[in-house]
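Task: encode each sequence below as structure tokens.

Item 1
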Amino acid sequence: TQLATLMTFSIASTAVSVIWAGYVMSDIMTALERKNVDGFHRGLWIYLGIIAAGIPLAAFYRYTEERMALNWRDFLARTFTLRYFYNRAYYRLQGHQEIDNPDQRISEDVRNFTITALSFSLLVINSTIQVLGLAGVLWTISPLLMYVLVGYAVRSAAQYWISLMPASLTSFFQRWISETTMVRNSSGVLPTISVPSPASRLA
């Protein structure tokens, strides 16, 4: 329930503070360019209203995030504490000198885990929502530009992951990407890709 509430606040905040504000700012800049005083004042008041609406959304989002982290931390701390006391496991841990203050370590590790995991998860969710929202705006402006940006992003990501591969695979995929982006020849057949063998590379 709290995760659904967080996603709802994130979608609402993105729609209000990013998408709607972008449209209003565009209207304000258009009014400035055309020296439309009434349009500029109207857009400015709408923009101030967006800021006023975004403040409680951000506050409730932060509150829900902290509440979810606290509940998750409480659940994990209770679970590990019960396992710590189950079948007198704490007696067996007393003989291990490398494990000091197990109760404190449970509390600190659970706190660090919940903060890191929740922050990373929400970062991925919020970034995905913003990308989808802005992609929808870009699609309404120019579908062709949307295709170009998606293709550029995919190609850049492919080149990054290829750079992490071994040298032989990197050479093969780089040549494949560069040659498949070339214009087809008169016969309509792409040029063949020849990959040198390891023996020839060593020679």
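Item 2
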Amino acid sequence: RIAHFLDRLPGLSLSDLEAEAGAIRGCISATCLDSALSEALAGVWRTSWRNQLLAVRSSAVGEDSILHSFAGQLDSHLHVDSTSALEAAIKATWSSLFAQRVLLYARHHGVRSSRMGVIVQAQVDARASGVLFTRDPMGHDSDNMLAEYSHGLGDEVVSGKITPGRIRIRRSDLALNYEHTDTDVAPLGEPHKCALMDIARIG
């Protein structure tokens, strides 16, 4: 059904696309995970994850390239605190490959992705987080790295819900330079600046 749907995607009306994509997402959410996978998740939960929150994140084949990026369009799930919640989050993350926004973006750019990996990892209780671009994503500035950040877990940065703080980091000496643009977040404190510089050294 999914392959047939993707073959028809370029010619579907918006209403048909929304209806069929919703049906596929519903099928994925209603389907039980393979028993071997479910047992493996339960085993790791008992031995390693019982006392901590988890984050479930998407990693789709062809998610990013030179010409396009699906960043922020596929779902991630935070605060996962039980095996049942973990299984639900995995299925919801998989099904986000068929979210209307994802399909419209794929159709507009003429790309197709029908496979997705899911990352399960410990959730860090972050005081500040964000994204570090080791090259200017617009391609205009090779002398600086660019960090976009917010306070807390950073999910609002990735989803585009807020205007993040922005810092350029000079590659030669790791000097920090705040961009004076409208933002929804306060400047980073000194401990966070030091941590950012440590990460930039790796980049």
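Check on item 2: The chain has a mean pLDDT of 84. The CA atoms of residues 131 and 148 lie 5 Å apart.
End of task.
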